[in-house]
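Support request, please re-run this one:
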Amino acid sequence: MNFTSIDVQQLAILLEDENSEIQFIDVREPEEANTTFLSGFKLLPLSQSQQWMNQITNDFNCELETIVLCHHGMRSAQMCQWLVSQGFTHVKNVSGGIDAYSVSIDNTISRY
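Re-run finished. Output below.
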């Protein structure tokens, strides 16, 4: 495992910095994203990886900080491991996922 984890408080700080060159990836399903979504994240459903995996290094910079989010942090951890295997060097998993974000940071975000 060559990635680190951040908590939702750290994520909130990163999302506030509009000048940062951080890439945000959400690996939840489209139905989940329709329920609630964090602005700035690009949706790459893990279940649809065959559709986007060959483009990942074209669509994202392997050397930029890359933050990965899911519902609770499990699927995003899988994605982080895969990104590292593809040569990404600054990958971070959001512990607790969007659920923890809705509880601790922004209770206007729907829980499911």
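The chain has one domain: 4-104. The two ends are 29 Å apart (CA to CA).
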